Amino acid sequence: MQNFELSVLDLAPVKQGKTIHDTFQESLSLANHAENLDYKRFWLAEHHNMESIASSATSVLIGFIANGTKKIRVGSGGIMLPNHSSLVIAEQFGTLESLFPGRIDLGLGRAPGTDGLTAQALGRNPAIINEQFPRQILELQKYFSKENSNALVRAIPGEGLDIPIYVLGSSTDSAWLAAELGLPYAFAGHFAPEQMEMAFKIYREHFEPSKYLDKPYILACVNGIAAETSEEAHRISTTLFQTFINIIRNDRKPFSPPVDDMDDIWSPMEKTMVLQKLRFTFIGNQEEIAEKLKSFQEKYNVNELIITSHIFDHQKRLDSYEIIKKAKNSLV
Q1: Residues 6+ apart with CB under 8 A from 164
Q2: What is d(CA 144, CA 59) in angstroms, rounded to the nearest whole number?
Q3: CA 63 – CA 20 distance, rounded (Å)
Q4: Are 136 and 86 in contact (CB under 8 A)?
Q5: Which of these, 15, 73, 9, 14, lies nearest to 44 by C-alpha position?
Q6: 319-328 pLDDT, tens digit each
Q7: I need a labelling partner for 220 at 20 to 30 A (CA). Which of 170, 173, 231, 289 fits?
Q8: Which residues, in sequence order, are CB contacts of 235 under 8 Å at separation 6+?
Q9: How far from chain centre, in Å, is Cα 231?
Q10: Contact criterion met (CB below 8 Å) for 123 and 83
Q11: Distance separating alpha carbons of residues 14 and 26, to the nearest angstrom
């Protein structure tokens, strides 16, 4: 089992009874906590038209988090690139990298991060996404290159800056692309576990070394909910379960506090659907989390695990990341 890094994915979750200002302050608090615990990076994900998620203006929020921290890498996990002009993203991340040198990551996905109607409002053309996404990545690489200095269209700031690009995916499509481009690959195992194993196999077997990366680099995102006792961890995990029930029911209300019995909320069919989607969810005390991390890594052998944690109580969320870090350190 190879050693692996730990990082954080934050969706800026909006909780019942809290304001969006509260949400952003809690995200900053979590980033500071993760930095103190030596997590490698803190990523934010682009979503739209959801009362429960406040990370729609992802680049702005990255700037806020980077400004409030000192050393942890901060970036997108990810920017949904077909929602945007490549030039605008190059300028935004060029600005971020100029403000916070050596600390900015640019993770890119092709999904809309929202529903179909909102995707239309964002100006997406679904007929050309699979063609547009690879082309836009190449455009970004061009805008970031020093060689673009003589072009008629330039990214200022952005040009000549070393901003790492990561390809994100929740199916095998982006695994082929990341391998072809020789870029690091991050998989959304926290909500789309079905094709993760095959995606990793494709990426490793077809990886082509590039000037950006000489060998495959895999990041896997999973759910992590840890507490002092197993019973408490399972109780606070009901916020995550309710969140996925709300997705199934198309109810985008803010995150709910934990409950004592999920059987009062979900139907047997909903329970099956949620547990399938949350297959890569590590719940338990420190010893149980360590065993689950070890089992996962022995099977998938990733370079980095990105932990996302939907816990209603902010202090318990901070505690969870600390317990997970201790569990990981106990494996080394």
Answers
A1: 105, 106, 184, 212
A2: 17
A3: 17
A4: yes
A5: 9
A6: 999 999 999 9
A7: 231
A8: 258, 260
A9: 27
A10: yes
A11: 10
